[in-house]
Amino acid sequence: MNVDFYLYASLARYLPEDARAEKKTIVSVSPGTTARDLLKTFEVPEKEVKLVFVNGVRKNLDAVVSEGDRVGMFPPVGGG
């Protein structure tokens, strides 16, 4: 099954080079795959992820993904 995997801001550097402009890649995953598993696949350190969204709904890293899901992750953001 396939999911759309988005890494935003500084996390985009972990995507394959050809996917960085769109900040997304399509990933083939097995049933039972979690958002945390996606991080491991792309070697993204957990400490760099602050927010996880699945289909626009905030989730945690233990959320199981399904066929056609859109999984997005954001780093901590500062400003002032």
TrEMBL record:
Residues 2-75 form the Ubiquitin Mut7-C domain. Gene3D superfamilies: 3.10.20.30. InterPro entries: Beta-grasp_dom_sf, Mopterin_synth/thiamin_S_b, Ub_Mut7C. This is Molybdopterin converting factor small subunit. It comes from Desulfosalsimonas propionicica.
